[in-house]
Amino acid sequence: MPELPEVEVTKRALEPHIVDEIIKKIIIRNHRLRWPINYYLLKKLENKKVISLSRRGKYIFINSESGTAMIHLGMSGSLGVLDRNSAPEKHDHFDIQLQNQKIIRFNDPRRFGCFEWAGKTPENHRLISHLGLEPLEQEFTGSYLYQISRNRQTSIKSFIMNASIVVGVGNIYANESLFISGISPKRMAKNISKNGYIALSQSIKKILQNSIKQGGTSLRDFSFTYQDKKVGYFKQSLFVYDRENKKCKHCDGTIKRIIQLGRSTFYCVQCQH
């Protein structure tokens, strides 16, 4: 599943090809994504200039003269830049056709992504208005996490994956951040000290920034398509995620796997307390 770094890298990769360009046409091949695509709203993009791209959580915003559309990659989605005459393939659900003879194409085998019109005030959209802080912004600090964690009856891993608290900390980066901080994913959020949260917030920032720099974590379903070539992002060296029963990279311990709220959690019993 594409997480925040993958979405940020995708946005940055698209920017040179779409910003300041005119959108000529929106082509919908399959409107049945997570929520049905409403072409009658999205056609407001047609014949309008793209002013900028931005990101909120895992949503990419296409900010145009007429308003904002937003895209979510879902579980298996990818966006790519192709020549206008490139034939669509299976699971290519929509194209954004540009005046420069390029197209932005969305492919999503599982169809959990979305393409929504957000108008002039995207921050008020039903999918956006409840979101918490961006983890890479200055406001996201250990003090912030400590203050809102008091009396929270949930595990620390579930707490930092709650999008109403902080956006974009998905399963991979939650596992890795907790390992770097030395915090057991099983601990209750309310029992973490302020210093623990300071270390955790710094770890989250560090691992997300490093992943963006490296191009995101290469997973089974994620790739960026450019000029008919699929490019998988670089798989960085992960400490615990998907390393069940392997030796810890920091000690002689073994990486364990448990299930929390239906998601796999990986951690080192000796390093994380």
Question: Could you explain how this protein is built, in words?
Answer:
The protein has 273 residues and is α+β, with helices and mostly antiparallel strands. It folds into two domains: 4-124, Alpha-Beta Barrel (N-terminal domain of MutM-like DNA repair proteins); 142-218 and 236-268, Helicase, Ruva Protein, domain 3 (Orthogonal Bundle). Helices cover 23% and strands 26% of the residues. It contains six helices and twelve strands. The chain has helices at 4-18, 39-42, 142-149, 156-160, 171-181, 194-214, and strands at 22-28, 48-56, 59-64, 67-72, 78-83, 92-98, 102-107, 114-119, 224-226, 229-231, 255-260, 263-268. It has a ten-stranded mixed beta sheet with strand order 8-4-3-2-1-6-7-5-9-10. A hairpin with a 2-residue loop joins strand 9 (224-226) and strand 10. Helix 1 (4-18) crosses helix 6 (194-214), helix 3 (142-149) crosses helix 6 and helix 5 crosses helix 6 (194-214). It is elongated and about 55 Å long. The model is unreliable at 218-222 and 226-234 (pLDDT under 50).
